[in-house]
TrEMBL record:
The lineage of its organism: Bacteria, Pseudomonadati, Bacteroidota, Cytophagia, Cytophagales. It comes from Spirosoma aureum. One of its GO terms (molecular function) is DNA binding. This is Transposase. SUPFAM superfamilies: Homeodomain-like (SSF46689). Pfam families: HTH_Tnp_1 (PF01527). GO terms for biological process: DNA transposition. InterPro entries: Homeodomain-like_sf, Transposase_8, Transposase_8_domain.
Length: 69
């Protein structure tokens, strides 16, 4: 089975739909993901906006670069 790749912005959009009141199975069916993936995303990205994700990505990149020094 082909693995689908979602960007962080897409993941946040999916989570906003779920948190907006849609049923978990409806969201999962629409995007072709399992409930386990949805709930894993919720634990990792809960409460984040796309601006927070960009800052987090920048910090992770800086941390990776500093560790290589």
């Amino acid at each position: 089975m082909k693995k689908k790749l979602f960007t962080e912005a897409q993941i946040v959009a999916v989570l906003k739909q779920y948190e907006g009141g849609r049923e978990a199975m409806d969201v999962c069916r629409e995007y072709g993901i399992s409930k386990a993936i949805l709930f894993n995303w919720r634990t990792k990205y809960s409460g984040m906006a796309t601006t927070h994700l960009k800052a987090l990505k920048a910090l992770q990149e800086e941390n990776r670069r500093l560790k290589q020094m």
